[in-house]
Structure prediction request, 396 residues.
Amino acid sequence: MEPVIDQAFAAALYSDGDAGLDAGASLLAADPTADAELFRRGEEFVRRAWERGWQPADVVRTVRRERDETAVGLAAGLIASETGRYGQLPPRWRSQLDGLPAAPPRNRPDRFSYALALLSLYRLLLRLPAIEPVGPPPGTSPHGLHLPPAHDEPRMLTRIRALLAKAEATGFPEEAEALTTKAQELMARHSIDEALLAARTHSKEAPGACRIGVDAPYETAKAILLDAVASANRCRAVWNSDLGFSTLVGFEPDLEAVELLYTSLLVQGMVAMTKAEAGQRAGGRKRTKTFRQSFLMAYAQRLGSRLVADTARVTAAAEAETESEAAGVAAPHLLPVLAARDMAVTDTAERMFPKTTTTRVRGATDLDGWTHGTAAADRARMGGRGPEIHGRRGKR
Prediction:
C-alpha cells in the first residue's frame, strides 16, 4: 500500500483547491508515525528552493506575501533546520538566518490544523520558480558571481550606519538633512577609495549581487527610490514586480552602502508622509491613497538627481585630489577607474538579466502629495533624476 505521506502529498500538493489540502491533512493527522517524514520532506522543498536561486530572506518574504504569519514561522523552522546541516554558509546568509522568526510548536493547536498549514506551505514552496542566483547555494563551491569576504563590517560602513540611524531618530529636519548628506558623501568617498585600491593592487574583484524586498503598498514608488539610490552609487537595480524584490548588481562596498541608504531614506520618507497626511486630514481631506502615491513618487523622483549631484561633487573633489597626489607618480586616474567599474557592473547586470524592460510609470495625480513629497526629499537632502520616472522589471 502507498505510504500515508505519499497519499497525503498526492491529494494536497499536486492538485488545486482546498479539498485536496483537507484530505491530505486528515490523512496525516490520523497517522503520528508520518510526522518525522513530513518535516523531512519540508526540508527537501527548502533545499530545492536554494537550488533554484532562492535565499532564506526571499523564501520568508514570499511566504509572508502569499500566506500568513503562521506559515512564515513554519518556513523559518524548516529553513533553520535545513541550513543547520552545513558547516559554512554563503555570505549574507547568516544575517538572514538571524532575522528569522521563531518556529511554532509542532502539532499545535491540533494535528489537523498543523498538517493543513504545512501542506499549504509545501504547495507554495513546490511551485517557486527559478530566479537569477546572487550566489551559490549552501554546500557548493563559489563560482560565477563575486562573493563578499567573510569579515567584520568596515569602519566606514559603521560610521554611515550610525549617521543614518541618527537621521531617522531626530525630530529636526535640518539635522536629518545634514546627517543624511554626510552619510551620502561618506558612501561616495568610500566607493572611490575602494575603486582606487582595487586599481593599484590589480584586484580581480568582480561585481556581485544581492536582493532587497520591495513590498506593497506603493511598491512602484519604492522600486523607483531604490533604483535612484543604486544609480547614484554605481549599482544597477532590476525590479521583479511579481515576486516583490529588486536585485542589486554592483561591487560589494557599493551594494552594502546602497542597502543602508535606501532603507534609511524609506523610513524617513514614510515618517514624513505620515506627518504630511495628518495635516491633510486635519484640513478636512478624506481621500489619502492618491496623496500617498504622489508623495512617494515625488520623494523618489526628487531624491535621484540630488543623490547624483552629491556623488558628482565628491567625485570631482576626489579627482582633483588624485591628480595632485599623482604628480610625478605612476598612479591610476580616478575617472577611467570608475568608468571601468561602471562598465563591469553593466556587463554583469546584462548577463544576469538579458531580457529586462524599462516601463514608463503613470504620472502622479495629486498636486499636494507631489509638493509635500518634493519638500520631504529636499529635507532628506536627496532628489529626482529627471522629467521621466522609470521602473525596471527583470524576469526570467
Remarks:
- The two ends are 41 Å apart (CA to CA).
- The CA atoms of residues 100 and 353 lie 29 Å apart.
- The chain is about 60% helix and 5% strand.
- Residues 289-325 form the longest helix (37 residues).
